[in-house]
Amino acid sequence: MNGDISKITNEAEDRMKKAVSAVAAEFMTVRTGRASAAILDRITVDYYGTQSPLKAVANIMVPEPQLIVIQPWDKSVIPNVEKAILQSDLGLTPSNDGTVIRLPFPPLTEERRKDIVKIVKKYAEGGRVAIRNIRRDANDHLKQAEKNKEISEDDLKRAQDNVQELTDKYINEIDEMLSTKENEVMEV
Hints:
Layout lengths: L1 H27 L15 E4 L2 E4 H4 E7 L2 E6 L5 H10 L7 E2 L4 E4 L5 H38 L5 H34 L2
Helix pairs in contact: 1-4, 1-5, 4-5
């Protein structure tokens, strides 16, 4: 009987960990004052009629804190890379010399920092919602098991308390990541 409970709670915990990882990955793509190749992870480039990830068509380097250098393996794709970067929400202007694209990171304005914090908060809220949905699913499974007489009412209560503890734990992780990222963005 308790195997059902541990299976449900373990599955919920695994899903919550994945939700936290997804938020962390989204945070990595958010621009701060420093150059990071991770912010280009979501950019896709038209490569001979196929949308390809930027890192699949170019070498990406961060030679200094305020600059990313993109070196496409095929020089003919440079205009497409520039176009993809300009169309993204990064707010960066690429420049090329025919062989590489330089992506300078100008210092962020106070207004842009506040906009970025709003984006980061939206990602964090999405993660919190995902975790709450996982909690709801786990509780529904537990209630169904109790209804089917697979677990007792006391077991149900204990299991729901356990799921709530997991929920609180992972929401706190997201809140800590959010606080760290906000400080990183607002740092001048």
